[in-house]
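The instructor's notes for this session suggest beginning with a concrete chain rather than abstract definitions. Hand out the sequence below and ask the class to guess, before any prediction is shown, which regions might be ordered.
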Amino acid sequence: MSQHFLAPPFHLPEGRDARLVHHLEEDDWASATTLLRDVVTPSTTEWKWLVLLAYVRFRDASDVMPDELTDASREALGLLTRAMDHGAPFESVAPFREAVERTLDQLSRGEEALLAKLGRDDDASGVSVEELDNIATLVARTQPARAVKLFEALAERQKETPLRHASLARAALARVAAGKFGEAKPALEAAMSEDWSKRPLSDERLTLEAVETALLEHATGAEFIALWQLATERGTAMAFPFPSVWPHQERLFLRCLEVRDFNHARALATRIENERAEVPRALAERFRAVRVEQV
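After discussion, reveal the predicted structure:
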C-alpha cells in the first residue's frame, strides 16, 4: 500500500484511517464499504475517498457477491467519474476504470444474450433449467412483476424435485417486490410449511430467510411473535441463525421498531454490533435510541 497512489493517509474524519487500513489488509470489503458509505456523500469532493469507495464496492461484488457485480460496476464508474472531475490523476485511475468498464461490458453482453433466448411473451420453452434460473434472477432485479411468470415456469420444470418449492417462494417474493403482498402471502405461507432442512432445499436457506423476512414485515401482534419464534427455530435447526443476512437484519430491526417490539430490537442490535466490524452510523444511532426507547 505504501507505494500505491491510494496509500494512506486518507484523512478520513473521526480517526477512520486506521480502521480502513485494517479492513483493506484483511480483504474485508464489506466492512470497508460500510465505513466509506458513512463518509462519502453526494457533495463529497475528496477524490481519494471516491476512488476508495469505488474500489471496495467493486471488490466486494467481485469476490463475495457476484449477483451484485453489474450494479457495483455501474456505481463504481459513477464514483470514478466524480473522482476524476475532482482531480484524481487520470494515469492512475484509468487502469481501474478500464477494468470496471470491461467487466460491465462483459456482464451486459452476457445478460443481453441470455434474455434474447426467451421466446415471445417470455416463452421459456427453449432455454435450459439453469438458463431459466439465471434469467428469472436477472429479471427480478429490475422487473419483479415480470419475473413472477419466469420463476413459476422454473418451478414447473422442477416439479419432480424439492427445488420447486424454492422457485415458487422466489416467485412469491417477486410478487412482494412488485407491491402485491396480498397475492403473495398464501405462497409465502406455503413455503414456510415445507421442510427446508435437507439438501437440495437446505442450500436455498437464503430464500427461506427472505420469505420469513417478508412475512414478518407485514405481521403484527401475536402473528409477529409466532413467526419470529418459528423463524428462529428453523434457523437453529439449519445452523443459520435467524436472521443472518445483513439486509434482512436491518429491515427486521426497523420492523421491530414499527411494531414496538423493543426486546427483539435490542437483541438484534446487540447481535449486529457483535457480528460486524462496522455498523452504518444511522443504524448505530437507532441502536442507541432503542436502548432508551427513544424511537
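Then share the key points. The CA atoms of residues 219 and 225 lie 9 Å apart. The chain has a mean pLDDT of 95.
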